[in-house]
Amino acid sequence: MNATTADAASIPDAEFERPDLDKGLGAAGNMGFLAAIIAALGYVAYSVYADAAAAGVHATALLPFALLFLALVIALGFEFVNGFHDTANAVATVIYTNSMPANYAVVWSGFFNFLGVLLSTGAVAFGIVSLLPVELILQVGSNAGFAMVFALLIAAIVWNLATWYFGIPSSSSHTLIGSIIGVGVANAMLHGKSGTAGVDWGKATEIGYALLLSPLLGFTVAALLFLAMKVLVRNKTLYEAPKGDTPPPLWIRALLIFTCTGVSFAHGSNDGQKGMGLIMLILIGTVPTAYALNRAVPEKYVQEFVVNSNAAEQALAAHGGGPNPAVASPQDARRAVTAYIADKKLSPTTLPALGALVDQVETQVSGYGSLAKVPAAATENMRNDMYLASEAIKRLGKEKTLTFTESETAALTTYKASLDSATRFIPTWVKIAVAFALGLGTMIGWKRIVVTVGEKIGKSHLTYAQGASAELVAMGTIGAADMLGLPVSTTHVLSSGVAGTMAANRSGLQMSTIRNLLMAWVLTLPVSIVLAGVLYAILNAIF
User: Fold this and answer.
1) pLDDT tens for residues 210-228?
2) Which sign does the torsion angle of CA 122, 288, 392, 309 carry?
3) Which residue among 180, 344, 507, 540 has the highest number of C-beta atoms inside a 10 angstrom radius?
4) Alpha-carbon torsion, ordered 412, 416, 417, 420, to 10 deg
């Protein structure tokens, strides 16, 4: 990759007038920025302390809580870097079409990134977590668990910072997923298994398709939308480069600001969840009594859970999931279900073991009468049993040798939802902390990649219609992916959308930039896999 600096533009001066990118937040803004960071970190520390105290946990040793706080800071640091690395996706078009001044645009984008995180569903967060090796998820509080979290976050941050330094728009989603795969492969190899055994390749393939197809979709749909606009909206001004600092016509300016807002919100909603999932793993591993189970479920939960458990047991029993001497003990059942999730091989003991696990969890939940009453000593094991049952049921849905009836499938799906409501939750303070990290991150360091998107993809200045087309497609693609629970690359969708409009307009593409984008796209996964795998091996030996 050739270094592309933030100050070198490739568009001829006669055709290009750069907007003012040097206005900062000002003295008052910088003070507020610093105060917000301090307040956010203080809020995180207080929230963990308050939740732990409410659950009856008190710090008896300094080291675990120090590691917890360090891990949380690194996780929030990933989201902070993600913020300024990906700001260009939302603000480049409004800046280069003079729709908003740069310093206003990044604050505007930061605010809607913040809102996007707060209002996100959490589906993407736990989709990312599902990629991790099951044995590490079950023992996330162990030394290997800390090594996993530190390795994948540090690897993701290093690659993001490297591509940002060279002004190359690359995918934070790509980077994080590569890091997760690297940890999974390294963990499997350290335990004498094949590297392919350490990753849920079905989920990885599903996510890989989303990452692979989203930029192709961005390029094609943005190009078609731009061409359609040229046919339907015959306003010459829309297809010309801005003159000086003249803003676009009011309606197109409103559209550009709207799409900037939408992309910012969608980016927060999608990308912010990745950090949430990892933070929850950290919390579950270090303070399981407070975070392993959702103690805020409604009072009717236990009664509904018992009904759903009985229906799930009947569905499994109809296919050989009844009592079996080979999995008579809870330990036998856990081992058999864990092996099924890890190896993805259905054995004669899989369904009986899962049935036994379902029965065991139902007995525990009904016996305690409420998740809030589960004692500290039982919390982590109970959460692990629920997680195993949920993942096993998800995996059963892909087994071609099993033919569940429609009612049986519905019973298992409903039961899985009951399990997930107890284990897959995100406290409000985690959302707020990630929202602060991502939102504040958008307000600094954005210039390098904004210049690349605005000046170095096409050979001519970005026009109003091109900016609107690329942003509309990015907003729609990311919003749809969020609803489907799939992580996509905001960076790839937007930059490929800009390239698509340039190609459709026959403006020409700057091939050096396109090559860099393609190289980053190709190299991100293998580099992050190797980096995270090596870091995990080193940290695992240290811890």
Assistant:
1) 667 778 888 899 999 999 9
2) negative
3) 180
4) 180
Q: Is the pTM of this model over 0.90?
A: no
The lowest-confidence range among 54-63, 91-100, 382-391, 399-408 is: 54-63
**What helix, strand, coil percent values describe the chain, rounded to 5?**
75, 0, 25
How many CB atoms within 10 Å of residue 276? 26
Which has the closest alpha carbon to 379: 290, 282, 277? 290
* Nearest residue to 521 via CA among 491, 494, 486: 491
> Over the stretch 444-458, which tens digit does the pLDDT of each residue have?
878 888 888 888 888
3-state secondary structure (DSSP) of residue 471: helix
Residue written as token pair 């592309």: 4
Question: What is the residue whose two structure tokens read 């990311």?
Answer: 478
Beta bridge partners of 509: 458
Where is pLDDT greater, at 5 or 235?
235
d(CA 274, CA 386): 22
452-463: burial string, b at 16+ Cβ within 10 Å, e else: bbbbbbbebbbb
Residues 487/127, Cβ–Cβ less than 8 Å: yes
Query: Helices (H), strands (E): how many in the chain?
Result: 21, 0
Q: Which of 259, 208, 279, 264 shows the shortest CA–CA distance to 486?
A: 208
Averaged pLDDT for residues 97-117: 89
> Per DSSP, what are the bridge partners of residue 278?
none
Q: What is the pLDDT of residue 60?
A: 59
d(CA 46, CA 50): 6
